[in-house]
């Protein structure tokens, strides 16, 4: 079980409430009535496919765009008519958006100068933020003299320096390689534990969504499909979309139940790790492909009636394409969804 992040810092930032948030770009409905409440101090990840509306949610909270309908409440005020610089919200973009002609130090100080923070205090805050993100030795460099990972840390430090009530992070780790992403993710988590500032974090990355957030919110087609603790959403997906979106390989879904037990009007689902190879198992299948991943293998199998089932197994079983296997589903982990609406039953 992951623990709720417990801030050791003084502040928890401001809560956020989105009510019936709707945003259209010409004929495109980017957001279609989004309701979401984020508690002060909570770290929430937004996940969803490309174009689902995640960035639009952040831009509306930051004030970079105006909703067509609905309310955006930060702290205790509706901010729809408040200009972005007065919202106490810091946004970090995937492409850093640093000033190329300024040094790291001046990039960090820029926002504070605009806000007329006294120089000594501004310099102290810049140094503190740089140390937190491990870039203190880069303060005299320009953005083009740094790696992508270092630039991303500068962008995060620039948000920290502002000491906002809310952080909005738009895929801030997406352009980092796997190793750097893992370490920066751990740093983000540590910073959130320390400061406890309300954070909305957009990501494509499942591991990031599962490990980083107190809650995960799954967005699709401009709507919230499900919001909840990551493990709860994984264990009890609200519909077939969420069932297939979280988890890799995705949940096996069998319309009508079929090999998983006939069930009219129902789509029956089972995750690949909940199907075991078992010589006494009720389902006969043939191995179509073996994906060996080192620590595990994914078997893609096909049953006599054509149903395809993916299974996670140990990597060293020596199974080959064409082998006959028998499978046993874990009955406690079978999911049932309405065939018409896709909703969990
Ligand atoms: N300025 C704009 N003009 C027109 N359409 C836009 C604009 N911004 C976003 N959209 C559209 O609104 C929808 C939601 O976009 P948004 O950027 O919020 O998605 P996203 O989930 O953040 O996607 P990604 O993960 O690819 O960044 C998409 O269909 C997108 O094409």
From TrEMBL:
Which residues are in the ABC transporter domain?
16-246
Report if keyword Heme is assigned: no
The alphabetized UniProt keywords are: ATP-binding, Cell membrane, Membrane, Nucleotide-binding, Translocase, Transport
Q: Which InterPro entries match?
A: AAA+_ATPase, ABC_transporter-like_ATP-bd, ABC_transporter-like_CS, ABC_transpr_FbpC, ABC_transpr_MalK/UgpC-like, Mo/tungstate-bd_C_term_dom, NA-bd_OB-fold, P-loop_NTPase
One GO location term (cellular component): ATP-binding cassette (ABC) transporter complex, substrate-binding subunit-containing
**Which Gene Ontology MF annotations are present?**
ABC-type ferric iron transporter activity; ATP binding; ATP hydrolysis activity
Sequence intervals crossing the membrane: none
- SUPFAM superfamilies documented for this protein: MOP-like (SSF50331), P-loop containing nucleoside triphosphate hydrolases (SSF52540)
What PANTHER family does UniProt report for this protein, alphabetically? MALTODEXTRIN IMPORT ATP-BINDING PROTEIN MSMX, TREHALOSE IMPORT ATP-BINDING PROTEIN SUGC
Q: What is this protein called?
A: ATP-binding cassette domain-containing protein
- What high-level taxonomic lineage is stated for the organism? Bacteria, Bacillati, Actinomycetota, Actinomycetes, Jiangellales
